[in-house]
Write a structure and sequence with these properties.
about 160 residues, alpha+beta, Thiol Ester Dehydrase, Chain A, five-stranded antiparallel β-sheet, two-stranded antiparallel sheet, 4 helices, about 15% helix, globular, acyl carrier activity, hydrolase, HotDog_dom_sf, FATA/B
Length: about 160
């Protein structure tokens, strides 16, 4: 099972400022929104503070030269939000991806990523534990695109 909490906002393309979402737009999305009680999760993970900035010289894993592909883009020529998650998960050490399964992710989008942008993915084990990682996606010029924290658990025997 999965729990997703989302906040939506609208940005005026000309002023680059937040704008109110028109009632007409809200009404169109209403059939797709369910207001359910959240599933119980590990609140220690969710409430363990701000997502950390990672510095390249302290990162356990660095991946350079990441570029959005054509089908990674939305109609505004920005990378889909799911693609950010993919880049973050790929930035987790292979040994963790092979032996564990993702239990939880907290993600903070910082800015848009366009078709011509080239990114760098950094990850570091949190407090030296192999189950929790902090992640950072950066543009080549150092501008932050997204921060994340992931929690992994040993794979269930199937």
């Amino acid at each position: 099972l999965m729990r997703v909490d989302s906040d939506f906002l609208m940005i005026n393309e000309k002023t680059r400022r937040l704008s109110r979402i028109p009632e007409e737009i809200k009404a169109r999305g209403e059939p797709y929104v369910r207001n359910l009680d959240p599933l119980p999760i590990d609140n220690k993970f969710e409430n363990s503070g701000k997502l950390q900035k990672i510095y390249e010289d302290k990162a356990d894993h660095v991946q350079n030269g990441i570029k959005p592909l054509w089908f990674d883009l939305d109609p505004n020529q920005h990378a889909h939000n799911v693609k950010y998650i993919s880049w973050i998960l790929e930035g987790t050490p292979e040994s963790v991806r092979e032996k564990c399964e993702l239990e939880a992710i907290i993600l903070e989008y910082r800015r848009e990523c366009g078709r011509e942008d080239v990114l760098k993915s950094l990850s570091v084990a949190s407090n030296g534990t192999p189950q929790e990682f902090h992640h950072l996606l950066l543009l080549e010029n150092g501008t932050e695109v997204a921060r994340a924290r992931t929690l992994w658990r040993s794979q269930s025997i199937k």
